[in-house]
Each structure stands twice: as C-alpha cells, then as structure tokens.
Design goal:
The protein has about 180 residues and is mainly alpha-helical. The protein has two domains: about 80 residues, no CATH class; about 100 residues, no CATH class. Helix content is about 75%, strand content about 0%. It is built from ten helices and no strands. Helix 4 packs across helix 6, helix 6 packs antiparallel against helix 7 and helix 8 packs antiparallel against helix 10. It is globular.
C-alpha cells in the first residue's frame, strides 16, 4: 500500500488510512523516505477527514517511537496541515483522558494504559504544535473554557460522549498541563 502516489492518498478510506500509516511509519523509522516525500505524503493524507482520523489512530495507538518523540519533519508536516488536524488533536486529549478513567472503572488496566499512552502522546504533540501555530492553543482553550464554564463551543461534544464530572475534571486538568 505504500506504493501509492500522493493523489491516491487523498482517497483512502478510514481503514486504508490506518493500514497505510502503519506501514508508512515503519518506512520513516527505517529511513526509506526522503523528507520531501514524508512531507508530501503527510500533506495528502492529512488533508481530509478519513485520512486524519486513520493517521492519528495508527500514530497515537501504535508502537512507533515516532509518536513519543515526533521528529522535526513531522512537526513541520503537522504545522502545514494545522487547519485539518487541530480539532482532532484536542479531542484526542479529551477522549483518551476520559477513556482511561472508564477503563480503570471497568478494571481493564491494559486498556487504561493504552489510553494513558495516547493521552501523553497527544499532549506532547499538542504542546509542541502550540509553539508553532496559535490555532492549536486557541482550540485547546476553547475546550478548556467549555469545561470551566459548563457551556460553550465544546458542550455538544462533551454531552455526545456523556462524560461525567470526574472525566470532565480530568480532561480539564490534562489540558491545563500545557
């Protein structure tokens, strides 16, 4: 699947984007792609909803060390597509934080650890990207304002997922870490 050209990357389904990203990360790790190719493929894949969702599912939940320490070329790529990824990145912090609590309550400590890992990776990435583009900080602050005021731009999101007070408080504390 990594033989796809940039145009093909604009049309991958959600599952195809997940599969592509897994293989792509391995190629980046083994230094088989030039920086120009990495940027071009990131721009293509992260330019539409299913590509963004698939990429971040694979990137944040997988075993790639590139998610723990994003290389500069990734930060450049993420910055170039900021308008496509800022919202999902903030939501990933919220969702992984809330899910870690849900898994803990259910006694599923393996899943809890996975959610904690996604939260840490998401926060780390968000912190680095906030230094490059204010759009990331503004989005984080929009969610934080909704949590603190009990209403706002993210109220529908919080209600849709039925986050309880403990989860909302944990999300708020996570967002304040940056």
């Amino acid at each position: 699947m990594t033989a796809l050209n940039v145009t093909d990357l604009n049309a991958l389904s959600f599952p195809e984007a997940i599969a592509f990203t897994q293989t792509w990360l391995e190629q980046v790790e083994s230094q088989k792609l030039t920086d120009a190719k990495i940027l071009a493929q990131m721009q293509a894949l992260l330019s539409y909803r299913d590509g963004v969702r698939g990429f971040f599912v694979s990137y944040l939940t997988g075993n790639s060390p590139l998610a723990d320490q994003p290389p500069a070329i990734f930060l450049d790529g993420f910055t170039q597509v900021a308008e496509h990824i800022y919202e999902i990145l903030v939501k990933n912090v919220a969702m992984s934080t809330a899910m870690a609590i849900a898994h803990r309550r259910n006694g599923d400590f393996n899943q809890q650890q996975g959610s904690e890992r996604v939260k840490i990776r998401s926060l780390n990435l968000l912190k680095q990207l906030e230094q490059r583009n204010v759009i990331f900080k503004n989005e984080r602050l929009r969610l934080l304002q909704t949590l603190e005021a009990g209403s706002g731009d993210y109220q529908d999101f919080l209600q849709r997922w039925q986050y309880d007070p403990e989860q909302c408080d944990a999300i708020r504390r996570s967002l304040q870490l940056i």
